[in-house]
């Protein structure tokens, strides 16, 4: 027990120590190299700016977090439903899948201005952009997770009296959970990209807007401080998925401890 | 008769996988189908389960014609097909859930079966924490949980090493003795077939045909000593002759 605790501490301490060294080099190296503050502000300046603008940062973050999570949630629902459709109605699958793949090849960022035209500068266009970016990885992994079941297992379940619904809930859905958890790890940062790009393009709220205002005023410390806020958010998000994995997916090969 | 197979043929495109097979299984008997790969053993098993339909002929299970997948039979495959996210006990109770039954009423029996199969103490282990032989024993427990009238086994020990395989045979005998379900057991091991069965059905390939049906009159329970009895060797020899006969043609 204590051994695993110390192992965990070491796992946290090592990257932290590395980070601390990098920050020290930055803090004392940048002035020596003559890099001006508007190009690369010192860590202390960034921290100071972060504290000064904390309430604004958190307000912006709340908005961005909302559009990101709403887009991600929507992508989860639609992605899984689309996957189900494709698995249970193969004809529809053969019609939809190539279209989706073709659509996915369009850089979603390029569609962003269109969304502003259609849905305005409010949160809707940002949610939609986040949704679009998150949709594909969730859809693809759901198809794999729900579909790649050993035929023997389906036969065995059927012969034991299982109907479609029971097999869906207890076999397919359960099989898909780790695949979807993996997809969320990829889709979450993508949804965040969607939200921030949406904020860059229009509107006056969110993290993206704060970064833009930092750029206009050549307030580089503010830009960095905002990046710090985003990092906090993504760390929390990925941490939540990892917590879920540790709690419910201990049986996964990648989670097995030796 | 528990299972009555009458003049069943099955072809896949132009290949005749099973050619005019007739076979009757008595209620509570242990019947093995033995033969080389590609002789239609597994196809016959899937036909009985109702997973595929015969091209011609009929199959009755307990007097009822098989028209689609049977809904209350046990199945064991070559691989254990356990659910990796379920602990062993919950894996065994899985079939109760599939049957729409209350798992609480089958828990006791699941625990007893695990004890009999030498899996006591591993109730809370995940499949990946068990050895291959243990996983397969768990899958046999699962097949027997609901005391199904019929259990189909498709080369259940095919993936195990020879030593584990023989021990598994005795474990299976113990479990079967408790449930007395009718068992249709597919294998390509003559020894295994003769050791475990009441009847051995010999099949030969291209096309898949029943070549011989050998009643096994060895006393039960069978044990390692059985393998050395003259009667066992005699019966094994007869099964072997059925398989070799085709090579000479």
TrEMBL record, chain A:
Record key words, sorted = Cell membrane, Membrane, Transmembrane, Transmembrane helix, Transport
Q: What is its main location?
A: membrane
Q: Which SUPFAM superfamilies match?
A: MetI-like
Report which superkingdom the organism of origin falls in: Bacteria
For biological process, the GO terms are:
transmembrane transport
Cellular component GO terms, alphabetical: plasma membrane
Pfam family example for this protein?
A: BPD_transp_1
Q: How does it sit in the membrane?
A: Multi-pass membrane protein
Instruction: Report TM segments.
Output: 58-87, 99-121, 127-147, 176-202, 222-249
For the keyword Cell membrane, the answer is yes
For the ABC transmembrane type-1 domain, which residue ranges apply? 61-245
Q: Where in the cell is the protein located? A: Cell membrane
- What is stated as this protein's family in its record? Belongs to the binding-protein-dependent transport system permease family.
Q: Which PANTHER family match?
A: ABC TRANSPORTER PERMEASE PROTEIN HI_0355-RELATED, ALKANE SULFONATE ABC TRANSPORTER-RELATED, MEMBRANE SUBUNIT
Query: What name does UniProt use for this protein?
Result: ABC transporter permease
**Which organism's genome codes for this protein?**
Ancylobacter mangrovi
- State the taxonomy lineage: Bacteria, Pseudomonadati, Pseudomonadota, Alphaproteobacteria, Hyphomicrobiales
Automatic annotation (TrEMBL), chain B:
**MF terms per GO, please?**
ATP binding; ATP hydrolysis activity
| InterPro entries in the cross-refs | AAA+_ATPase (IPR003593), ABC_transporter-like_ATP-bd (IPR003439), ABC_transporter-like_CS (IPR017871), ABC_transporter_ATP-bind (IPR050166), P-loop_NTPase (IPR027417)
Q: What residues does the ABC transporter domain cover?
A: 3-230
Q: What Pfam families does this protein map onto?
A: ABC_tran
Keywords (alphabetical) are:
ATP-binding, Nucleotide-binding, Transport
Answer whether the UniProt record assigns the keyword Heme to this protein: no
Instruction: Write down the Gene3D superfamilies for this protein, in alphabetical order.
Output: P-loop containing nucleotide triphosphate hydrolases (3.40.50.300)
* Superkingdom of origin organism: Bacteria
Please state which protein family the record places this protein in. Belongs to the ABC transporter superfamily.
Name of this protein: ABC transporter ATP-binding protein
